[in-house]
Design brief:
CATH superfamily of the largest domain: Type I PLP-dependent aspartate aminotransferase-like (Major domain)
Helix content: 25-40%
Structural class: alpha/beta
Low-confidence stretches: none
Mean pLDDT: 97
Radius of gyration: 21 Å
Largest sheet: 7 strands, mixed
Order of helices and strands: HHHEHEHEHEHEEEEEHEEHHEEHHEH
CATH architecture of the largest domain: 3-Layer(aba) Sandwich
CATH class of the largest domain: Alpha Beta
Number of strands: 14
Distance between the termini: 25 Å
CATH topology of the largest domain: Aspartate Aminotransferase, domain 2
Amino acid sequence: MKKLQMVDLHGQYLNIKTEIDKGIQEVIDSCAFINGPAVKKFQENLEKYLGVKHVIPCANGTDALQVSMMSLGLQPGDEVITSSFTFIATAEVIALLKLTPVLVDVDPDTFNIDPLAIERAITPKTRAIVPVHLFGQTAPMEEIMNIAQKHDLYVIEDNCQAIGSDYYFNDGSKKKAGTIGHIGCTSFFPSKNLGCYGDGGAIFTNDDDLARQMRVVVNHGMTVRYYHDYIGVNSRLDSIQAAILNAKLSNLDEYAAKRRIAADFYDKAFVNQPKLKIPSRYPKSNHVFHQYTMIAKSIDRKALIEYLASCEIPAMIYYPVPLHMQKAYLDPRYKAGDFPVTEYLCANVFSLPMHTELDEVQLTYITQNVLEFLNR
């Protein structure tokens, strides 16, 4: 059996080695390392795949969020609502720009932001909502967009974990995650469903004016070379990473299908286990399983993870500490107990290996050992 990993990037690379190597070599031969043809090609291919007017490549997913907020003209003290159950970057950029992060709880089944909690958190200072499409499925965007329209708020989708997921509206139409709000952001960190071999990110929008502004912000605020009309940043996707992403993009739907096969295998093994709660699948979104995250019920999570490690099976906790209890973000507005769902999840969730290269032998070994621990 192949060695088990949370993400098998090398195995994935071997299956597309020819395309990856060719793309990298073309960039090296051209020496167009910054904003070269590979970046333009990837931008156009991703626009076509997502069905969105504008893709603005950038250096990473955190920058994508920061550039989005800078381009909207948000001012210090403006409030931005997001989930307390997410990776730190979502709130990090809000605080960095001296905006006020307003944290809310999540749905206990999907782990995504709760629209009712959003509505309760809105004040006259609220300017934007940042729903996070967590672990691979889309947040309830139709409800969120209705709330945003009602209160005249911007919506910035944190789509770093759900690229390729479809969202289905009540009228039967569908859109790709990240293309529903005013702006969508994604990360191409290597472990993402669409990942490069370093850092990378992108911003999506159908708004021509916002796209124009974001292209200026990512390039030092320049409108004309050496003429800086705005405060900007230096955030670019380099050409080698774009070439890698071009090779992977054509396989993205196949990658999602392989992840769903692995998730189905896990579901079948664990669905009737009273000590585990398998991931819920939101009916309005097709899950692309960035992570396969379960809830450990009435068992010692730490002991389970240690047991799996003894069997050379990796397992991770995403995320062990809610944002409102992180030392850097302690705020007198919040205290332990304010977000019971988030706090319960942080204390009980764990994730098993999930990637495109998992085979039946590996999946059988993982599930058998989890069940052996549960039945001890």
